[in-house]
TrEMBL record:
Keyword vocabulary terms for this entry: Cell membrane, Membrane, Transmembrane, Transmembrane helix, Transport
Transmembrane helix keyword on record: yes
Species the sequence originates in: Streptomyces hirsutus
Keyword Cell membrane annotated: yes
Upper lineage: Bacteria, Bacillati, Actinomycetota, Actinomycetes, Kitasatosporales
Main location: membrane
PANTHER family: GUANIDINIUM EXPORTER, SMR FAMILY PROTON-DEPENDENT DRUG EFFLUX TRANSPORTER SUGE
Cross-referenced Pfam families: Multi_Drug_Res
Location(s), subcellular: Cell membrane
InterPro entries: EmrE-like (IPR037185), Small_drug/metabolite_transptr (IPR000390), Small_multidrug_res (IPR045324)
Membrane-crossing segments per the record: 33-51, 58-78
Membrane topology, from the record: Multi-pass membrane protein
Family statement drawn from the similarity comment of this UniProt entry: Belongs to the drug/metabolite transporter (DMT) superfamily. Small multidrug resistance (SMR) (TC 2.A.7.1) family.
Name listed for the protein in its UniProt record: Multidrug efflux SMR transporter
Top-level taxon in the UniProt lineage: Bacteria
Length: 104
């Protein structure tokens, strides 16, 4: 169960990071509200996962998945270019996350 919550929390990390960028320094209400709710839920899920997973592993997985998804969202929205090299590096990051799960 901890792994499922951790992955959901990592998805929420991408949501709050994206909303933070859209909030324009907390000047836009809707993205600011999405940021606050998603960040709270993301942190709560990470905290729950850390009760049964090693802290370093849980944090690395949370950050890795969240970072990759944030880049993918930005690429889909046309805010960043996803070059073959960037895609390969992101795939490597996901490979490392999968490796952490495999050895945990």
């Amino acid at each position: 169960m901890a792994w499922i919550v951790l992955i959901a929390s990592a998805v929420l990390e991408a949501v709050w990071a994206t909303a933070l960028g859209m909030s324009q320094g907390f000047r836009r209400l809707a993205p600011t509200a999405v940021f606050a709710v998603a960040m709270t839920l993301s942190m709560a899920g990470l905290a729950y996962a850390m009760t049964s997973l090693p802290t370093g592993t849980a944090y690395a997985v949370w950050v890795g998945i969240g970072a990759v998804l944030t880049v993918v969202i930005a690429a889909v929205r046309g805010q960043e270019k996803l070059t073959p090299l960037r895609a390969a590096l992101l795939a490597g990051l996901i490979g490392c996350v999968v490796g952490l799960k495999a050895v945990s």
